[in-house]
Amino acid sequence: xxxxxxxxxxxxxxxxxxxxxxxxxxxxxxxxxxxxxxxxxxxxxxxxxxxxxxxxxxxxxxxxxxxxxxxxxxxxxxxxxxxxxxxxxxxxxxxxxxxxxxxxxxxxxxxxxxxxxxxxxxxxxxxxxxxxxxxxxxxxxxxxxxxxxxxxxxxxxxxxxxxxxxxxxxxxxxxxxxxxxxxxxxxxxxxxxxxxxxxxxxxxxxxxxxxxxxxxxxxxxxxxxxxxxxxxxxxxxxxxxxxxxxxxxxxxxxxxxxxxxxxxxxxxxxxxxxxxxxxxxxxxxxxxxxxxxxxxxxxxxxxxxxxxxxxxxxxxxxxxxxxxxxxxxxxxxxxxxxxxxxxxxxxxxxxxxxxxxxxxxxxxxxxxxxxxxxxxxxxxxxxxxxxxxxxxxxxxxxxxxxxxxxxxxxxxxxxxxxxxxxxxxxxxxxxxxxxxxxxxxxxxxxxxxxxxxxxxxxxxxxxxxxxxxxxxxxxxxxxxxxxxxxxxxxxxxxxxxxxxxxxxxxxxxxxxxxxxxxxxxxxxxxxxxxxxxxxxxxxxxxxxxxxxxxxxxxxxxxxxxxxxxxxxxxxxxxxxxxxxxxxxxxxxxxxxxxxxxxxxxxxxxxxxxxxxxxxxxxxxxxxxxxxxxxxxxxxxxxxxxxxxxxxxxxxxxxxxxxxxxxxxxxxxxxxxxxxxxxxxxxxxxxxxxxxxxxxxxxxxxxxxxxxxxxxxxxxxxxxxxxxxxxxxxxxxxxxxxxxxxxxxxxxxx
Length: 749
Known about the structure:
By secondary structure, the chain is mostly helical. Helices cover 66% and strands 0% of the residues. The model is unreliable at 309-359, 446-488 and 696-709 (pLDDT under 50).
């Protein structure tokens, strides 16, 4: 046969050569008899050897029947087919590349062949084909990628090993740029990474590592956006190796691609946030996820707050105010408006540096907030994840406040619920976020556009300052939000926050008992302490649950008198030198009247000793309970604390402070013979020259500044208000006692 073929080649008789190949194919290689098929395969190989360099002209006719035999049921025949194809390819060399896809397809099937001889033969053919591809510069990568994408999803271990080996070979060829087609095969590679075989997993790790090295070398040519969602999926894989590898890729993508990754932020956060709460068993994944989270957060910039503020005009519009931006919904970009938007974007890029990139990359804030809301609402999520969510929200309110305030009404309830979290660190971050919401200028709204909170929120923005006239409640008649001149302005959400915080304390008394003081003290650090006490006192003045009002006032008073954070506010109240401080005192006093003992302590703090004495005189008309005496006991203990050092020193000046001594003696007379009684009694025994205490009500007032300043307050009206509030409390106690008695009767019946 070889001699005959050589003669035809010498004669250039192509028709006879084709005739010989056709006979070998049709009558032998494709015969029904197995021995004929074997003979046909041997003949085709011999024919190819005889053709030599001319075999490339007849490769289609030579290869097709051999590949058909790859599917033969007889393993020996499959081996002969493999051997025949090896000889054909060895002679043709680079000429087989146009037929590479069909050869690769056949080889991928033989790689999973159960017969070891066939598998061994296919490996020889595979190595030969790899050598040819490596040394050639005519490989058709574009035509091969669809086949590779299809075969890469095979579940057979040997087929997977075959695929990975080819990817490694193609990646090593300088003239073949497989990186351009990485999005086509990346998902399949990550699936192979989860194979049960350690060898295959190792090979896949190497392949992915090579791709990542190439990405770092040439980031400008990488299609980051097309692979982002693939990584998001595999960053959530149950397999630790897949998850860690995908997370490492995500870290590099965020750092290399930068803001190109922003449109995929919601998906990335969905994958990354749960990893932040992993324990030490998954420490590596947790650390990489944390880097991803931090890097992604840094991509959000203040300019993102103005991305959608484009107008359908050829001029740059004036920057809208925060009020305007909050009153207008986000624009929905439709196909009809796309051209108009593109023109405006182009026009803006002429005026603003770097705006081309910013126009192209849009921050999907709605999606991000939805993901953050979900993770914060999920009670099964770990502490570190919740902290990360709160940090994200805080960061977004700092960088994109106008857009974020569109989501505030939906976020507010979950942020308030988070105050009941078990972790102090979570509560601290939550308070930081709530404080930012309450103080951000972007939260300022026009009248009628303020935050809605049912009937409890006033119809318009709220003034937090106390009016000069005692008895007059805070007015909401003026437009905008005003505070006393000594405090910074809060926005419309501040008052809503205070209302809902008190509601939270009212409905969840355990929170008030265990974390109430902690929460209020931290808020005093984050916001203005005067505003906080001002607004809470104003709200408690209208509180219908009198028992809660009394408890809350007691809590606020304890914080006011003992917390180091409120040192400045105590000094402000101590002297009452300014109209603002006197207004604040009046506001606090009205709410403090819910608790008689705290009212007296407020008078001690503000050095209103005569009024304190007048109040104690009224205690004889009140119902003296165990709780009442306990609070008096605590007040005596407070008088011995450093906070009231100035008060104890004023006991030396008996002439100018007669009512202070009288008030203290009044407290002494209220107390039973207890340790507090002994403590206060010993203190009063140290007062010098007791004869000077014989003072009458017409004692001349001191000429000190504080007395003159305090004289501007209508103490008679304040005393009347105290009596009115205490009468309400008395009535409420009688009602509660009546209900309890009725309940007891029902139980007896």
